[in-house]
Design a protein that fits this description.
Helices cover 12% and strands 46% of the residues. It has 136 residues and is mainly beta. It has a single domain (6-135), classed as OB fold (Dihydrolipoamide Acetyltransferase, E2P). The strands form two sheets. Strands 8-1-2-11-10-9 form a six-stranded mixed beta sheet, with no helix packed on it. A five-stranded mixed beta sheet has the order 3-6-7-5-4. The protein is globular, with a radius of gyration of 15 Å.
Length: 136
């Protein structure tokens, strides 16, 4: 029996993104962060989730836009992959793979629903990219 995939739809800056729900550990309210010395400006600090320290990244700022104008939520990625949380604006919903479709073009992979088009992110790739960027 195949498992139906679910996706978390969220807003960061002016763009919409989707993450496979199995790559998300927690969605929470914003919280007080501890500073991270010499971190890039888009790394807002660090927090603890399930006993693991996670760097908090302003997703909009990291992806080349202005800092998130109306931060609302922290999306903690699967802690087995790495310690990373994304500060985002609005969380829209969780959608099932069945009524949506995935499309790929030269800009990336997109989750298409009847209401929106969201860029599909992969937590493993995102953690690798951000880890490399923070090590510079």
């Amino acid at each position: 029996m195949s498992k139906v995939r679910r996706f978390l739809l969220m807003q960061a800056g002016s763009r919409r993104y989707a993450l496979p729900l199995e790559q998300v550990s927690e969605v929470s309210e914003l919280r007080t962060l501890s500073p991270v010395p010499r971190a890039p400006v888009w790394c807002l600090g660090a927090t603890r989730s399930a006993g693991v320290v996670a760097a908090v990244i302003d997703l909009s700022w990291y992806l080349g836009e202005e800092p998130e104008p109306a931060p609302e939520k922290l999306v903690v990625l699967d802690l087995r992959i790495g310690g990373l949380a994304l500060q985002v604006g609005q969380i829209f919903s969780v959608v099932l793979e069945a009524p949506v479709r995935l499309e790929q073009d030269s800009y990336g992979t997109w989750l298409i629903t009847p209401d929106t088009k969201a860029e599909l992110l992969d937590a493993v790739e995102l953690i690798q990219e951000i880890s490399a960027a923070m090590a510079r």
